[in-house]
Amino acid sequence: MKMHNFCAGPSILPKVVTEQLARSVVDHEGMGLSLLELSHRSDTFVKIISEAKSLLLELMGLDAEEYETLYLTGGASTQFYQVPFNLLNEGQTAAYLDTGRWSAKAIKEAKHFGNVAIVGSAANSGYDHIPKADFSRLEEPPAYLHITTNNTVSGSQIHEQISAPCPIVADMSSDILSKPMGDLSGHGLIYAGAQKNIGPAGTTIVIVKKSLLGKVDRAIPTMIDYRTHVKNLMFNTPPVISIYGCLLTLRWVKEQGLEQIQKNNAAKAALLYEEIDRNPLFRALVKEGSRSLMNVTFDLVEGYADRSESFLQLAAEAGCMALAGHRSVGGFRASLYNALPLESVAALVEVMQAFTAKHG
Ligand SMILES: *Cc1c(COP(=O)(O)O)cnc(C)c1O
What we know:
The protein is an alpha/beta fold and 360 residues long. The protein has two domains: 4-10 and 257-359, Alpha-Beta Complex (Aspartate Aminotransferase, domain 1), CATH 3.90.1150.10; 15-255, Aspartate Aminotransferase, domain 2 (3-Layer(aba) Sandwich). It contains nine helices and 14 strands. The strands form four sheets. A seven-stranded mixed sheet has the order 2-10-9-8-5-3-4, sandwiched between helices. Strands 11-12-14 form a three-stranded antiparallel sheet, covered by helices on one side. The chain has a two-stranded parallel sheet with strand order 1-13. Helix 1 runs antiparallel to helix 6, helix 2 packs across helix 6 and helix 7 (258-278) packs parallel to helix 9. The longest helix is centred in the last third of the chain and has 21 residues, at 258-278. The relative contact order is 0.17. The model has no long low-confidence stretch (mean pLDDT 97). Bound molecules: pyridoxal-5'-phosphate. The site of pyridoxal-5'-phosphate (PLP) has 12 residues, from helix 3.
């Protein structure tokens, strides 16, 4: 049976990527060695990580003089404290936009390092929209503004460019390179766990503006200091296979082109939201204007809540997998990352229509 993978992460990758990874695990490019057995200091891997760095900057439209790309470990979750460790002085204030579960986690960690000003929050309405950022109550510009561009759990996404009186730090874990990235010159730091849209789990992408580093007074442990990784191509052993998977995915992204990827993503999301809005048994969980093109959250309408399991069962029978909503939200979530084909969304829409024909 054809499987349709709606998993939120680790998630679907382009087939050319998984196939090449499989070959490289057995014998990397005819070397007679598995990529898993190669030194990370070998010419082969130095080339892989160097291209992965430069290609990512190129796709993001950022200047290599100003910005450095790092492939770190510890997940986006480590960035929640690595960011303030490096960028927020004690006594200083950082601004945070509270748009979802991951933003809230980032806020919790930042409080260990300095003051946190919440300049907008949608927590009181179940994170069903993107609030405006309001800096009017701050006496001086904050060290940075932290945003989560796409809220993987609740299913909202920032669609308008945010302006701030300070550098922007963006958690782009679940929508990086899902469209042309626009003007990122106001960004001081961008991070993303690889496993949502860029590659296999294991590495975390960090893109940092070099001029922002070295400004805090506290001592920073070597591994957590971004400058360590800016200075050294590889300070310690990186997750070789994960970074190779990222490189292959980035090459695929470049080949498709970000404009085309954006068109595909928009078509997929439109097909699903139209069905949710049209179908009398389903409702969307996020307000129009803030809805995510990557993670679509929805539920059954009132009175049908006890049929969630039957819907998931029907979906599974059609090969549509990983549709249960995050445990903190409930309902359903369909993740439509770059590599998911339109036909998978069409298959899901068919399941929804079949469900309604049966239960409606
Ligand atoms: C998944 C996710 C995280 C956490 O990523 P890990 O790599 O598992 O630590 C953080 N932020 C966002 C927006 C996410 O989607």
